[in-house]
Write a structure and sequence with these properties.
single chain, about 450 residues, nine-stranded mixed sheet, four-stranded mixed sheet, globular, binds thymidine-5'-diphosphate, binds magnesium ion
């Protein structure tokens, strides 16, 4: 056996260096290089790269014409909101990384899935964080029956693998990948080498035996997955579980998905009996909306195939700083600056004398330009102290000339608003030019320019 080789690995990005460096040359962060032992006792990592569905021995180039479209075998997880994010269910032989802050509900979610999948398939739930008793307590609280559910409290990779070989599960859950360590690697559990090598072993096993795997990954204090970024590259899908711990709502979103889109989100509510799916997220996002207050406006954002109605709040106050503050939560800064510049230039509004605080309620982040006009309306409303009526939905993309540009899926958005009790919608004139939009119970107000929104704002009533 060769003597172990020491390398230095960046805890932020996984970059390696033969000697210690104060600053990572790859990501530029300071004090992130830690010492790790590279040598693995038996096999070299290069011999164990994951092979995408084919074994390494017969890995020959294939004529493109002979490639067949894979028919992904999916199994529903029992939670429709999760299946939606996964692109229709858990793919056979895929590896999904579920990440989120401690206490957000990852173990709860996985236990619920285990139960649902365990009705007709063999599930092995490996926990490196909790004892069997603790798992049982949680499972009882969730009403788990677990027909074919096996639980293993273990952190040693080799023992987990030998148990898995015995049980031969269809689905394996590893909670969490950071707690699992291999005897063959000399560095501490949770270190980058350990996490990477253990993950690689599981990925190979998943691909070779067609086991669906769900790995839990902890996040570090910056919000990224603790351990190397390579973990995200290795797996088939990366899901983030987010939400405010003080609030009951949780949002699950895919940041990577080899088997589906990354646009969909799933919404859950944490109850005392586990996570409940929220079938009507718009209702949730609009609950507790203040009435008759300036600075608020309803917007509609398409999240994948589903329109979501949420509320954007703006607070515009005279500034005491030499350069005014702009704070934005849920909307990209550049977009906010752009909208502000258009409003200053085209409407002559003096935002440069004011601080602007912007927030999308419910922790949603809006990436769609179709929300521009609602954001603009909220800011104008706060600046001028005039109110956007509660039953008015504002839709439209703002152009640099102050013109309102067409948006996609307009009818779907307006229908969703009508369902939620809105009675008026400001929409881009361009969308209705050729075919007027008719939605029952809705007054449609087509607008060409941002100035037309002003006349829909009203004085506050006391
Ligand atoms: P947990 O799933 O252990 O979070 P994670 O694995 O992401 O660290 O638990 C999340 C929190 O949810 C925990 O503080 C307790 C709470 N909880 C409920 O409110 N209801 C429940 O039914 C369960 C099981 C947990
Ligand atoms: Mg947990």
């Amino acid at each position: 056996m060769k003597s172990p080789k020491t390398i230095y690995v960046c805890t932020e990005c996984g970059a390696q260096s033969p000697k210690w460096l104060g600053k990572c040359p790859h990501c530029g962060k300071w004090n992130t290089m830690i010492e790790e032992v590279l040598q693995i006792e038996s096999e070299k990592p290069s011999a164990r790269r994951p092979s995408m569905g084919s074994s390494l021995s017969d890995n020959k180039a294939t004529a493109y014409q002979k490639l067949t479209t894979p028919a992904y075998m999916r199994s529903e997880s029992g939670l429709g909101e999760l299946d939606r994010v996964l692109g229709g269910g858990l793919v056979l032989g895929s590896v999904v990384l579920l990440s989120g802050e401690p206490g957000i509900g990852k173990s709860t979610l996985l236990m619920q899935i285990s139960d649902a999948l365990g009705q007709d398939r063999k599930v092995l739930y490996v926990s490196g964080e909790e004892s069997g008793g603790q798992l049982k307590l949680r499972a009882e609280r969730l009403g788990v029956t677990g027909e074919h559910l096996y639980v293993l409290t273990e952190t040693n990779l080799e023992k987990i693998l030998s148990e898995a070989d015995e049980i031969k599960p269809d689905v394996m859950i590893l909670d969490s990948i950071q707690t699992i360590y291999s005897d063959k690697i000399n560095s501490a559990p949770g270190s980058i080498t350990q996490v990477r090598e253990c993950a690689l072993t599981f990925i190979n096993k998943a691909k070779a035996e067609g086991i669906s795997m769900l790995l839990v990954g902890h996040v570090n204090k910056e919000g990224g997955i603790a351990g190397p970024k390579v973990l995200e590259h290795m797996v088939d899908a990366v899901l983030y579980f987010e939400g405010e711990r003080q609030q009951a709502y949780r949002i699950i979103r895919a940041v990577k998905n080899r088997y589906g889109s990354t646009n969909e989100i799933g919404v859950f509510e944490m109850t005392d009996r586990g996570l409940d799916e929220v079938a009507n997220p718009s209702e949730m996002l609009l609950s507790g909306r203040p009435k008759n207050v300036s600075g608020n406006c309803a917007l509609c954002s398409m999240e994948g195939t589903r329109p979501l109605i949420a509320e954007v709040q703006a607070l515009v106050t005279p500034t005491v700083f030499p350069s005014p503050r702009r704070t934005s939560n849920g909307v990209d800064y550049n977009r906010v600056y752009l909208i502000l510049a258009v409003l200053e230039k085209r409407l002559g509004l003096k935002f440069y004398q004011n601080d602007v605080y912007l927030n999308v309620v419910g922790g949603l982040s809006i990436g769609e330009p179709a929300a521009d006009l609602a954001i603009a309306a909220a800011m104008i409303s706060s600046l001028t102290d005039r109110i956007v009526p509660d039953d008015l939905l504002v839709i439209g993309e703002l152009g640099l000339a102050g013109e309102i540009r067409a948006v996609s899926n307009l009818e779907q958005r307006v229908r969703e608003a009508a369902r939620l009790g809105f009675t008026r919608a400001i929409v881009p004139y361009r969308n209705t030019e050729k075919r007027p939009l008719k939605v029952e119970g809705m007054r449609i107000i087509p607008v060409r320019g941002v100035y037309e929104v002003l006349k829909e704002l009203k004085e506050p009533t006391i």
